[in-house]
Automatic annotation (TrEMBL):
Keywords per UniProt: Hydrolase
Native organism: Streptomyces griseoincarnatus
InterPro entries documented for this protein: Cellulose_deg_GH3, Fn3-like, GH, Glyco_hydro_3_C, Glyco_hydro_3_C_sf, Glyco_hydro_3_N, Glyco_hydro_3_N_sf, Ig-like_fold
Pfam families the record matches: Fn3-like (PF14310), Glyco_hydro_3 (PF00933), Glyco_hydro_3_C (PF01915)
Protein name: Glycoside hydrolase family 3 C-terminal domain-containing protein
Domain of life (superkingdom): Bacteria
Domain Fibronectin type III-like: from-to ranges: 688-757
Length: 789
């Protein structure tokens, strides 16, 4: 039988519970009936953990928060439940039952029967025990394939929705400005167009499943000085407008994102959480965003404790509300008693409470949480017997075959072949020396926001919950007739040189060496990549470079494989490796994707979303540099990358030809149309990624030498050719002018059709004519590609 847990209603349905009325009228009526304490209770969350036996959740304690008494809070209501699945390892079915029972308790405790919004992390999959760990966002960028990322996000959203979650804290739309930053793995890349298009696809997929997507971190977090986490950001207004903001504009306008999370950092002395011009003036008044703004965890309290712009927690709450923050996460701190007291004393106007509350309740109404027939029973429990928790254990699968197949597809598309002297694909080698710290480490495919690395490491006695084949297992399956000798050589960052001699001996006895190097994801110094795991330089962690150099001296061809969260300088390996394979924490199917590329079972098709540096100390730099950022005779530091943004090889060859432009001139409100032919001239099927870069040789303000404005993936059989047509609106040539307005200027432009930022194949000179034209966030964002059948 199904437990009776539906919310009880009276025969006369209150206006706020009546879906026949407009949402605005329902919300206004509810606000008018609430006390101050009930209003404020809707504006904060409580960090909880689901019960392992299906009972109600328990408050999670953190060293940055005080104990929370739910029994005291719940009679006033509760805005959000923070990470019920993502706090401790819990069977998904029992976690869903725990959330169900908690929601029942919340609705029965407050006068209006309002449930909480449950939110979770979903940066590389639903961050819950037993859920599929997909490739990290940097791998999303490497696919140059928005469609597959949209499908992945929809699958993640369906899993979250099935167990009662409403909101996901993703995607990260920060544009990489310094690869030393630990959270590079969480980003999509160093180009705002790539970040915007891939991030928007993720938002569309998540929202299609009914999950509220949360854009983060708004804005400037990735531009911190020296790549240090939560350091000040030295960003000018033009860099903010032309590099950091466009992905958010696109994800709101095209993706329909319903929530935004403020950044921790300040820009020019103004913390994002207290920046009214950003969170209200730009986000709402200019862009028209009507969703909720949520605090990054503890970010409102940081206005007092870290930024020093608030004298006490009440001042911090008032500053955040004034700026436009609606919800305090992860738990109640400043929006609790300090805010009640501040409003009562007249220090914070109640109108600010009502403004934030209206947004929160509007979103709850749109989620159906105010409807009289709302039920806490999630879709996964349709028809289940909820009175027997143990019978539910194992009944919800968050890592099913469809998920894993999708994870495999993304991993295959994301692994990048950086160099190859013809050694790859391997032709049935007899003896393989598999060397390196990531050769036998299952977690080497996971980022820091995957559940096993984010939470599971705190519970070493509990199984990881998902299948994670290491590289040794995948190579053994891929090359069943080969003799594989495994030698660790050294650790990721332990500095141990004692195993290098053994590794060299194994290399000399082998036909081929596969050396697996890179990172260990973790949090706040517990890894070499991840939040709070910033790098002093882009040298490989520990003594991995010494191991690599010793193997290169062995006389046996070396295939260098990176399982990492950021790009690293590889020293002489750039020239001396037989091949270099770059992967960015490629998820549950990652090692199989790498093995498949090595054998030739799959054809590499990934492209770099970030440049790979030639030297470890040339940061910060990205391909988006102006002329002064390029190599010159007046500096001894050469920032030229070893492998540029967009680079990636395949096992076949392509010829580009017959570029035509319909008209070489267009007005500043017009467009150009260009066409080219791409032919697979090799003997294998393969994927080419046609990238369109814009070069503006003369502008009223300094411009990058080039910037990506469009791309398309082409899958071609041997000998097959396709005609590709690209429409380039003048809007994509826009930039922020001297007066702070975005403009399109008349003048000459160069359209560069390229295989990467360092390999232009075809160019077209075109001219914009007419007056300077001002554009805004409603401009056309994309150069649109069409491939003829």
């Amino acid at each position: 039988m199904t437990a009776n847990v539906a919310v009880e209603t009276t025969p006369e349905v209150p206006l706020w519970n009546d879906p026949s009325h407009p949402v605005s009228a329902r919300v206004d009526a509810l606000i008018g009936a609430m006390t101050l304490q009930e209003k404020i209770a809707q504006l904060y969350g409580v960090w909880v953990g689901a019960s392992a036996d299906g009972g109600e959740v328990a408050p999670h304690q953190h060293d940055m928060e005080e104990a929370v008494d739910l029994d005291t809070l719940l009679p006033s209501g509760l805005g959000q439940l923070t990470r019920p699945f993502g706090t401790a390892p819990v069977d998904p079915a029992l976690g869903a039952l725990s959330l169900l029972r908690t929601q029942t308790g919340i609705t029965s405790a407050n006068r209006f029967g309002i449930p909480a919004v449950a939110h979770e992390e979903c940066l590389a999959g639903f961050a819950a025990w037993g859920a599929t760990a997909y490739p990290v966002p940097l791998s999303w960028g490497a696919t140059f394939d928005p469609d597959v990322i949209r499908r992945m996000a929809a699958a993640i959203g369906r899993d979250m929705r099935a167990v009662g979650v409403h909101q996901g804290l993703a995607p990260v739309l920060d544009v990489v400005r310094d690869a030393r930053w630990g959270r590079v793995e969480e980003t999509i890349g160093e180009d705002p167009y790539l970040v915007g298009t891939i991030g928007t696809a993720y938002v569309q997929g998540l929202e299609s499943a009914g999950i509220v997507a949360t854009l983060k971190h708004f804005v400037g977090y990735s531009a911190s000085r020296a790549g240090r986490n939560l350091a000040p950001s030295s960003v000018g207004p033009r860099e903010r407008a032309d590099v950091l903001l466009p992905p958010f504009e696109m994800a709101i306008r095209e993706g329909g994102a319903r929530s935004v999370m403020h950044a921790y950092t300040d820009i020019d002395g103004v913390p994002s959480a207290a920046d009214e011009s950003l969170l209200t003036g730009l986000l709402r008044d200019t862009w028209g965003f009507d969703g909720t703004v949520v605090a990054d965890y503890f970010g409102i309290a940081f206005l007092k404790t870290l930024h020093g712009v608030a004298g006490d927690f009440a001042d911090a709450a008032g500053a955040a509300l004034t700026a436009g923050v609606d919800i305090e996460l992860p738990t109640v701190k400043t929006f609790g008693a300090p805010l009640v007291e501040a409003v009562t004393e007249g220090r914070v106007p109640e109108s600010l409470i009502d403004r934030a509350l209206r947004r929160v309740l509007t979103q709850k109404a749109e989620l159906g949480l105010l409807d009289p027939d709302w039920s806490p029973v999630p879709p996964a429990f349709d028809g289940a017997d909820l009175d027997d928790p143990e019978a539910l254990r194992g009944k919800i699968d968050l890592d099913g075959p469809e998920n894993r197949e999708l994870a495999r597809e993304i991993a295959d598309k994301a692994v990048v072949l950086l160099s190859n002297d013809g050694t790859l694909p391997l032709d049935r080698p007899r003896r393989i020396a598999l060397v390196g710290p990531n050769a036998t480490e299952p977690s080497a495919v996971l980022g820091c926001y995957s559940f096993p690395q984010h939470v599971g490491v705190k519970y070493p006695d509990i199984p990881v919950g998902i299948e994670l084949p290491d590289l040794r297992e995948s190579l053994t399956a891929e090359f069943p007739d080969a003799e594989i000798t495994v030698v660790r050589g050294t650790g990721v960052d332990d500095g141990d040189l004692s195993g290098i001699a053994e590794a060299v001996d194994a290399a000399r006895d082998a036909d081929i060496v596969v050396v697996a190097l890179g990172d260990r994801a973790g949090l706040f110094g517990r890894g070499t990549s991840g939040e709070g795991c910033d790098a002093e330089s882009l040298s490989l962690p520990g003594v991995q470079q010494q191991l690599l150099d010793a193997l290169l001296d062995s006389g046996t061809p070396v295939v260098t494989v990176l399982l990492a969260g950021r790009p690293y300088a590889l020293g002489r390996a750039v020239q001396d490796s037989a091949a270099i394979v770059q992967s960015f924490f490629p998820g549950v199917a990652g090692t199989r994707a790498i093995a498949g590329m090595l054998s030739g079972r799959t054809n590499p098709s990934g492209r770099l979303p970030v440049s790979v540096p030639r030297t470890p100390g040339s940061q910060p730099t990205t391909y988006l540099g102006a002329p002064l950022a390029q190599a010159s005779e007046v500096s001894n530091i050469d920032p030229t990358p070893a492998f540029g943004f967009g680079h990636g090889l395949t096992y076949t060859t392509f010829a580009w030809s017959a570029l035509t432009v319909d008209a070489e001139e267009a007005p500043t409100d017009g467009e150009f149309t260009a066409s080219l032919t791409v032919r697979n001239t090799g003997g294998r099927a393969g994927t080419e990624v046609v990238q369109l870069y814009l070069h503006d040789p003369v502008a009223s303000v300094v411009q990058p030498v080039q910037r990506l404005v469009g791309y398309a993936r082409l899958d071609l059989e041997p000998g097959e050719e396709r005609r590709v047509r690209v429409t380039v609106p003048a809007d994509v040539a826009s930039f922020t002018g001297r007066d702070g307005h975005r403009i399109v200027e008349p003048g000459s432009l160069e359209l560069r059709l390229a295989a990467s930022s360092t390999e232009t194949r075809l160019t077209a000179e075109v001219t914009l004519t007419g007056p300077v034209r001002q554009v805004d966030h409603t401009r056309r964002f994309r150069a649109e590609f069409a491939v003829e059948a």
